[in-house]
């Protein structure tokens, strides 16, 4: 399995440098993709249609986002995987990152949003967020900062967090009504 991870990581990262336009797009996306997704979520707070339902989904996605990142921090206590560029496997297109590689926080953050929207029944927004999240995951390997299994691990922690939040944070509860009525 480790052999395939290295092989696929190298294959994706080897694409870097073949197109300056693609390099520029994926470097920009790897840096700004998650903040743009968070902004796209936050701006929906003021939507007029199904306000309680939309707000419930927005709060759920924020909870899954934070829970996923918290799970990642717990994993980092036990797994100290060096970055692929530190192992001499990839060519880095962005500034180096001092922390460990597994799991990818970018993958976790973006996938937590996408999976939560899909689980809450928002197919249009969930599908759009999923497409962006997949490109963000690809960009993390492309720019040389993660192994492929790092982003897959991030997607798993994101999905776990989204399923937990969906199961525990129910629509219409007292807490939900209080949170969705803010502003």
Automatic annotation (TrEMBL):
UniProt keyword annotation of Transmembrane helix present: yes
Tell me which species this is from.
Answer: Hoeflea alexandrii
Spell out where the chain crosses the membrane: 25-46, 58-80, 100-119, 126-145, 151-169
Please give the PANTHER family that the UniProt record associates with this protein.
Answer: AT30094P, SPHINGOSINE-1-PHOSPHATE PHOSPHOHYDROLASE
**Which keywords, in A-to-Z order, does the entry hold?**
Membrane, Transmembrane, Transmembrane helix
SUPFAM superfamilies attached to this UniProt entry: Acid phosphatase/Vanadium-dependent haloperoxidase
Ranges where the Phosphatidic acid phosphatase type 2/haloperoxidase domain occurs = 58-166
| Protein name (record) | Phosphatase PAP2 family protein
In its keyword annotation, does this UniProt entry include RNA-binding?
A: no
- Pfam families recorded for this chain? PAP2
